[in-house]
Amino acid sequence: MPDVGEGLSEADVLQWYVEPGDKVHDGMIVCEVETAKAVVELPIPYEGLVHEIRCAAGATVAIGAVIITVDTAPQDGSPPAAPPVSETALPSSPEPEPHEALLVGYGVMNSSTKRRPRRPRAEQPTHPEAAAAQAKPPVRKLARDLGVDLGRVVPSGSSGVITREDVHAAARTEPPVRGEPAPTSASGERRVPVKGVRKATAEAMVASAFTAPHVTEFTSVDVTRTVTLVQRLRQDPDFARLRVTPLLLVAKAFLAAVRRFPEINASWDEAAQEIVLKERVHLGIAAATPRGLLVPNIKDAHAKTLRQLAEALEQLVTTARAGKTPPADLSGGTVTITNLGVFGVDTGTPILNPGEAAILAVGAIKSLPWVHKGKVKPRQVLTLALSVDHRLVDGELGSRVLAATAEILEHPKRLITWA
Question: Which of 65, 285, 306, 386 is deepest in the core (most CB within 10 A)?
Fold first, then answer.
């Protein structure tokens, strides 16, 4: 099992695309694994016949453990006998047999292969554990959304292809794969093992909440002009085919505020007892996905134009929902935005991502009575909440950042004068 992320010690095998006896070639994707940060497809850097699969789908495997072996020089060209698949991952393995190569990392040495072509349908395995290879991308997405393990779905399509109807049928007869809840007991309880993203999120939030002293400030702002600007941008040819939402303007306003008060773009170095000021802003966007909460970040968000920021936001959300966010995009964030408004919530008290000094919660935009130019009128109102690490962000700095963000959203023309 290669190290597919930063500082990760294990990964869960989601599904295999091959079985013992199958031919593989350099760069071919052989399995899909889930780490605490992302779902990753693993290529194999060898050519030959699969000799043994050493862990079943669903097993948690330590980084460095052998998960598959390949006979790179079969003597007679015939597939080797298929050993049984282990139910659990092995922490270590014996020395490989002669001519046997081990998948130990991503690197593909002495090869020009960049990405393997998809296997022809006739070569695809048809056993349940490799069934995901027989499902088209929309069907795989449906399975993720419904929490169905494709390895347990019985295909009904031609050549063993899994259909949407197969997934819906499985959803009615099996518990969701997300957390693998056990059947309800006589006491009316269910226990859900905490794995993958949920486990990592829980550990990170506990560490953050009990390490960084949180302070949260709130403000409500008239964003009628911002809502009007969003509507105009949607009609602008420069933003054609882009998803323009109020979150785009909130992100741009927050970035402008961070630029004006750069001390908030920082982290706390506990070992050195120092404040580390960051010159680059990697803006995290909390995204709810079928795998749990992910916070991918937009690298160098401070340097992007409004259109570039819109493109980055759209790509970030699309990739996160598809479960294909690369591990690099899930690390290195400096400040974060979490959008609670999509759930109809006014605001909240967000918990900081470890290593960051500020997180902005964005509530729902609602039409409320508001005093505007001396008269009470219906206006579009938004509530913002900013949580900060009080070790390095005092009340004044946090207040100024929050107030500056609100000022721009009330008067979005400030984006021009503050640029």
Answer: 386
CA 290 vs CA 145, 346, 348: distances in Å: 6, 23, 22
Helix (H, G, I), strand (E, B) or coil at 399: helix
**Could you say which architecture CATH assigns to the domain 10-173?**
Beta Barrel (2.40)
| 121-to-124, 262, 274 alpha-carbon distances in Å | 5, 54, 57
The owner of tokens 């554990």 is 129
Q: Over the stretch 256-266, which tens digit does the pLDDT of each residue have? A: 999 999 999 99
Active-site residue, from 99, 127, 372, 390:
390
**Looking at 126-232, which runs of residues are DSSP E strands?**
214-222
Q: What pairs with residue 42 in β-bridges?
A: 31
Q: Has 99 been annotated as catalytic?
A: no
Q: Burial-class residue 81 by CB neighbours within 10 Å (0-12, 13-18, 19+).
A: exposed
Catalogue the E-assigned strands of 283-396: 283-285, 287-289, 292-294, 297-298, 335-339, 358-362, 366-372, 375-389
Domain boundaries, the chain: 10-173, 198-418
Tokens coding 71: 């006979």
- The architecture of the domain spanning 198-418 is 2-Layer Sandwich (3.30)
Residues 6+ apart with CB under 8 A from 237: none
Q: Do domains 10-173 and 198-418 have the same CATH topology?
A: no
d(CA 146, CA 344): 23
Q: Which of 104-108, 114-118, 174-178, 329-333 is modeled with the greatest confidence?
A: 329-333
